[in-house]
């Protein structure tokens, strides 16, 4: 019986030449051929290094070093192509696309060398910081809130917009203007948001939302905070939760983006065998098919900081609106007291709940309070969303330096005169509203309510969105 394998051994004294001659690789910078640049090393990989190339020029052909240096600058687009013959035509395969990251000039006694490091699109993403929220409004426009945290489904609660919004030429799910009306972000939505919001249209080819949903099984995000990370780290954090990897590849297309981002799942590609001989051995191409092996353990990076101050806080006197269904009103005094009405819970807000209507919750039936409160004059900016807030103590201090708290005033004559409200009241913590808490409404309040001339206003403070 004879056992056979697919192993082939090549015997030779040494093997020191590249399997692909460097003369077959050409470098283009901003579309211009630079035949005086030599490719020293090309690496194509994923996190954390991604793709990069080391280029050098030691003896410029028919040009001096100063001219060579003037033609190269950081940020310029680099395209490395490998040439091949197709019949009588010479064509090129894109090996690496990227940008000049660094330029180093070395001078020795007998020669000078210029070394250039070019990196793929990962170098661009490292320079973009993720912060704030792009909010999708009901009218189809987008609003940026720089002071908000970029947290998808914070505390596992939905905060994505119910409808897609056109942004940078793409339909994307932004953050919800009012979280109570939001929809859960999926991991596909989160990746799509990061790619659509932070990158100009047409600069990088990205997968469609359906492809991302298929890769992530359309799973929902739970409390994913990427505030302060660079864009590369933010995408990495999202992918880690789903067991995904990503890399950047060159596109053969003559038009459109020259680079694309590709997402893939670990362990789903084809298996390959990697071999490398020990140092000092004679090279055998049957025993070595990689040029370098490196393993490292990185600690936590702590030198990246992002400083954020608190949100701006404004004090104002806010006039409040009725926060109850007027069809529940009646002239029966005892109906509106918890001590005399066992079913008080059905009418507990009548004559007692007074609201700012900052989120527009009371604009429609049965409250009919009109449009949501407009903070633009108070905040001195239109960069805010109509969402539920809460009232905080006033910023004004008394003679002892203490806040005056919540200063509630009442008018019994439809706003002609105002007095400090003498009764007890509760400040709602889930919205800008107060609730009159006494067992029975006092006579002045009750009579004014029946005459429909009762009004309330409160001096307090609120936080803006910046």
Task: List the SSEs and their pairings.
Elements: E1 25-29, E2 32-33, E3 38-43, E4 52-57, H1 65-70, E5 77-86, E6 89-107, E7 112-119, H2 122-125, E8 133-136, E9 142-145, E10 151-152, E11 165-167, E12 170-172, E13 175-176, H3 187-198, H4 209-216, E14 224-225, H5 231-242, E15 244-250, E16 259-265, E17 313-319, E18 321-322, E19 353-355, H6 376-379, E20 407-411, E21 419-420, E22 425-427, E23 433-436, H7 443-450, E24 455-463
Labels describing this entry:
27% strand; 466 residues; 4-stranded antiparallel sheet; Thrombin, subunit H; alpha+beta; 3 domains; 7 helices
Q: State the secondary-structure class.
A: alpha+beta
Distance from first to last alpha carbon: 80 Å
Shape: elongated
Give the integer mean of the pLDDT values.
Answer: 84
Beta fraction:
25-35%
Q: Give the C-alpha Rg.
A: 34 Å
Major β-sheet profile: 7 strands, antiparallel
Number of helices: 7
What is the spatial order of strands in the main beta sheet? Answer: 2-1-5-6-7-4-3
Number of individual domains: 3
Strand elements, count: 24
Helix content: 10-25%
**Low-pLDDT windows of residues:** 13-23, 298-302
């Amino acid at each position: 019986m004879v056992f056979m394998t697919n192993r082939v051994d090549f015997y030779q004294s040494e093997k020191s030449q590249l399997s692909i001659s460097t003369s077959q690789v050409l470098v283009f910078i901003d579309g211009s051929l630079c035949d005086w640049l030599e490719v020293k090393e090309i690496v194509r990989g994923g996190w954390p290094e991604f793709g990069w190339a080391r280029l050098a020029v030691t003896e410029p052909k028919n040009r001096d070093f100063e001219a060579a240096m003037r033609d190269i600058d950081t940020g310029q687009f680099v395209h490395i192509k490998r040439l091949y013959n197709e019949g009588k035509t010479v064509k090129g395969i894109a090996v690496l696309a990227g940008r000049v990251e660094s330029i180093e000039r070395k001078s020795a006694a007998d020669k000078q060398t210029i070394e250039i490091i070019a990196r793929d699109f990962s170098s661009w993403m490292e320079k973009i910081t993720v912060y704030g929220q792009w909010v999708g409004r009901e009218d189809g426009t987008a609003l940026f809130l720089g002071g908000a945290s970029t947290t998808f489904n914070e505390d596992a609660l939905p905060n994505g917009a119910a409808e897609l919004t056109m942004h940078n030429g793409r339909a994307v799910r932004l953050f919800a203007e009012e979280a109570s009306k939001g929809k859960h972000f999926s991991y596909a939505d989160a990746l799509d948001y990061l790619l659509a919001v932070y990158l100009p249209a047409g600069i990088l080819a990205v997968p469609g939302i359906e492809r991302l949903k298929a890769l992530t099984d359309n799973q929902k995000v739970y409390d994913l905070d990427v505030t302060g990370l660079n864009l590369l780290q933010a995408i990495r954090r999202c992918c880690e939760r789903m067991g995904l990897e990503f890399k950047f590849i060159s596109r053969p297309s003559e038009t459109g983006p020259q680079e694309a981002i590709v997402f893939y799942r670990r362990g789903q590609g084809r298996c390959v065998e990697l071999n490398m001989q020990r140092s000092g051995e004679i090279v055998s191409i049957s025993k070595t098919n990689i040029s370098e092996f490196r393993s490292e353990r990185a600690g936590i990076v702590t030198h990246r900081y992002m400083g954020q101050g608190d949100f701006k806080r404004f004090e104002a006197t806010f006039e409040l609106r009725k926060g109850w269904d007027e069809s529940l009103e009646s002239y029966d005094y005892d109906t509106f007291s918890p001590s005399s009405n066992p079913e008080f819970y059905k009418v507990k807000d009548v004559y007692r709940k007074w609201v700012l209507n900052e989120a527009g919750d009371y604009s429609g039936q049965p409250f009919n309070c009109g449009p949501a409160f407009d903070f633009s004059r108070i905040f001195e900016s239109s960069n805010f969303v109509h969402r539920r807030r809460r009232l905080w103590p006033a910023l004004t201090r008394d003679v002892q330096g203490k806040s005056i708290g919540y200063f509630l005033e009442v008018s019994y004559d439809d706003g002609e005169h105002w007095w400090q409200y003498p009764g007890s009241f509760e400040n709602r913590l889930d919205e800008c509203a107060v609730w009159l808490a006494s067992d029975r409404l006092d006579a002045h309040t009750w009579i004014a309510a029946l005459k429909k001339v009762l009004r309330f206003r409160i001096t307090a403070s609120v936080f803006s969105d910046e």
